[in-house]
Amino acid sequence: MAVVVLASATGSPGVTTTALGLALAWPRRVLVADCDRDPSQAVQAGYLRGMDHGGRGLMSLAHLHREGAPLDPEVWRHGLPLVEGGEIERRFLPGFATAGASRLFEHVWRPLGESFGALDTQGADVIVDAGRISTTGLPLGLLAVADTVILCVRSSLRSLAGARIHLTTLQEQLRSLPVPPPAALAVVGSGRPYSGAEIAAQFSLPVVVEPAWDPRGAEVLSDGGQEPRRFSDSPFMGRFRSDAKALSERIARTRQHTAVIAGVSA
Ligand SMILES: Nc1ncnc2c1ncn2[C@@H]1O[C@H](COP(=O)(O)OP(=O)(O)OP(=O)(O)O)[C@@H](O)[C@H]1O
Ligand SMILES: [Mg+2]
């Protein structure tokens, strides 16, 4: 029912950590997709502690696309399990493994984006880690299928100054789409020093995710650090659960509203 795109402006505010936290707490089946054009293998080497990807991931999907194979049936199959067992299936789609690989992907973003949207028919949502916006913006094929595009920031002046610059590029890109998805913010460590409410007011954008500031908890997700006892019951993961629930409900409401308007104007 949802494609959520997460990105950053400058620095490393915590996009990957936030994408993983949301995916582990998401209320439905979910695929978290590493679409960062600056490859790092952060999730495989970190949270998944070196799990073998068995050739699965973006490059294999690009290969299939070149051969004319439809991506829809492949995207979910290319995901690695993020968790063992559990009631809800959560998968991770590995990203680029070599520098410059994303340059060969220009024609694949759109079909890939469309197949993310099509996962809805399999009851799955997608959380995209799109990495930095960069001077050229994010791949339009991903933005075109997004239900919401979330810019991840820290609450420091330095992070917010960078966000201001790159948000302009992102908003221009969103305006160029036939149906622009809404933009929103994720504030990592709100209150250090600026609050989520202050940042929302400054940027005229809603803050839809506010991960708790917890270096040790974050390290479990970003670096595969040792899980503290009762990690999944910690306030850090609890915050992801409440933010994930609120975000998925927000997207469902927007979709319903859009469907009603489309029905009225049909
Ligand atoms: N909520 C949080 N509380 C404390 N530290 C955090 C939090 N979220 C992320 N971090 C830390 O911030 C650092 C960067 O995180 P992460 O790798 O997720 O950022 P990123 O924006 O994806 O960076 P990159 O652009 O390099 O991919 C990591 O050390 C991570 O543990
Ligand atoms: Mg990252």
General description of the model:
- With about 270 residues, the chain is α/β, with parallel strands linked by helices.
- It has a single domain, classed as P-loop containing nucleotide triphosphate hydrolases (Rossmann fold).
- The protein has an 8-stranded mixed sheet with strand order 3-4-2-5-1-6-7-8, sandwiched between helices.
- Helix 8 links the parallel strand 7 and strand 8.
- Helix 1 crosses helix 10.
- The longest helix has about 30 residues.
- The site of adenosine-5'-triphosphate has 21 residues, from helix 1, strand 5 and helix 9.
**CATH H-level homologous superfamily name:** P-loop containing nucleotide triphosphate hydrolases
The oligomeric state of the chains shown is single chain
Kindly estimate the percentage of residues that lie in beta strands according to DSSP: 15-25%
Query: How do the helices and strands follow one another from N- to C-terminus?
Result: EHEHHHEEHEHEHEHEHH
- Give the cofactors and ligands: adenosine-5'-triphosphate, magnesium ion
- Work out the radius of gyration: 18 Å
Number of helices: 10
Helix content: 40-55%
User: How many strand units?
Assistant: 8
Shape: globular
**So, CATH architecture?**
3-Layer(aba) Sandwich
What is the rounded distance between the termini? 22 Å
User: Could you name the CATH topology?
Assistant: Rossmann fold
Average pLDDT across residues?
Answer: 96
User: By helix and strand content, what is the structural category?
Assistant: alpha/beta
Query: What is the CATH domain class?
Result: Alpha Beta
Strand order of the largest sheet: 3-4-2-5-1-6-7-8
User: Any idea how many domains?
Assistant: 1
Q: Low-confidence runs (pLDDT<50, min 5 residues)? A: none
InterPro entries: P-loop_NTPase
